[in-house]
Specification:
The complex is a heterodimer of chains A (137) and B (171).
Chain A (H helix, E strand, L loop, with lengths): L4 H8 L14 E8 L4 E9 L5 E9 L2 H14 L4 H4 L4 H7 L7 H21 L4 H8 L1
Helix pairs in contact in A: 1-2, 2-5, 4-5
Chain B lengths: L3 H4 L10 H15 L9 H22 L1 H11 L14 H19 L3 H28 L3 H28 L1
Helix pairs in contact in B: 2-3, 3-4, 4-7, 5-6, 5-7, 6-7
Classes of the chains: A alpha+beta (137), B mainly alpha (171).
Chain lengths: 137, 171
């Protein structure tokens, strides 16, 4: 199956690969996995004092599309607020990377990873998720 | 939906004796195989081909533990959601990531001993997991509760296949 140019570009030059210290108060960690392909994805966000995501890291064991999806998301979330980051949808990722239908689950994985990272950060800080959703709406 | 167990006259259970399945498969295969219908009419030859395909598919499904479990769950209306359920327990995912890191290191070092130890640990874990799945499905009849375990087994299978690939690349 042919990968799109954007997938290949992210696969060959992945952005923001690596890890933050999980226990750091300013870090939110999302771990997700896709049984269908055995992919495992860790996505972390670092939130600044202004409540915006100042940096992001990922580590993904999976196919090119899964790596490209997580790489893209780490780029997208920088500078965003938590509520903005949580509104990223897999369809936007799939569209940006021109993923074929059989690889849509890779974009679902990336969406779930950023949501999990945001939820982890909120849990650490006792933030109410509903409140954020209301603000985002 | 088609019940693959019925085709072989087997009770639908996760704990399945490989020899029993093998025997039933050979027996049916010998009755429907296209070789037996080489001189028969078009309709019979076509039917023989269809049966052979069906029998092979059922055999492949039942022989593989993940596919067998998935089939039993589906017979009971439970979707294993391999494609869409990404929320595995965090410790499990962490462990999967560590195992993949170890695999990456071992294949980077071209270290067959490292791969061997990884594989031995994985096989042991698969056995334990398969026993738990048999408990859930066959004894407790808790099909929904088995789904999470089957998804775990899927990850372990994939890692097993990746170890195979790593062996090939370092040889």
């Amino acid at each position: 199956m042919a990968y799109s140019d954007k997938v290949i570009e992210h696969y060959e030059n992945p952005r923001n690969v690596g890890s933050f210290e999980k226990s750091d108060e300013s870090v939110g960690t999302g771990m997700v996995g896709a049984p269908a392909c055995g992919d495992v994805m860790k996505l972390q966000i670092k939130v600044g004092s202004d409540g915006r995501i100042e940096d992001a890291r990922f580590k993904t064991y999976g196919c090119g599309s899964a790596i490209a999806s997580s790489s893209l998301v780490t780029e997208w979330v920088k500078g965003k607020t938590l509520e903005q980051a949580a509104t990223i949808r897999n369809t936007q990722i799939a569209e940006e990377l021109s993923l074929p239908p059989v690889k849509i689950h890779c974009s679902i994985l990336a969406e779930d990873a950023i949501k999990a990272a945001v939820a982890d950060y909120r849990r650490k800080h006792g933030l109410d998720e509903k409140e954020d959703e209301a603000k985002a709406a | 939906m088609t019940n693959h167990f019925e085709l072989f006259g087997l009770a639908p259970a996760f704990a399945l004796e490989a020899e029993g399945l093998e025997r039933a498969y050979r027996e049916i295969q010998s009755r429907v195989h296209p070789d037996r219908f080489a001189r028969a009419g078009d309709a019979e030859r076509r039917a023989s081909l269809q049966w052979t395909t069906r029998v092979n598919e059922a055999y492949r499904t039942l022989r593989n533990p993940v596919q067998r479990a998935k089939h039993i769950l589906e017979l009971h209306g439970v979707d294993v959601a391999f494609e869409t359920n990404t929320a595995m327990p965090a410790e499990f995912l962490m462990q999967q990531m560590e195992l993949r890191e170890r695999l990456e290191e071992a294949s980077g070092r071209r270290d067959p001993k490292g791969l061997e130890s990884l594989r031995a640990g994985l096989r042991a874990e698969k056995r334990v997991l398969e026993e738990s799945i048999a408990d859930r499905i066959d004894a407790a009849k808790d099909y929904a509760g088995a789904a999470g375990l089957v998804r775990k087994l899927m990850f372990l299978d994939k890692l097993d296949a990746e170890i195979d690939l790593a062996y090939e690349t370092i040889e």
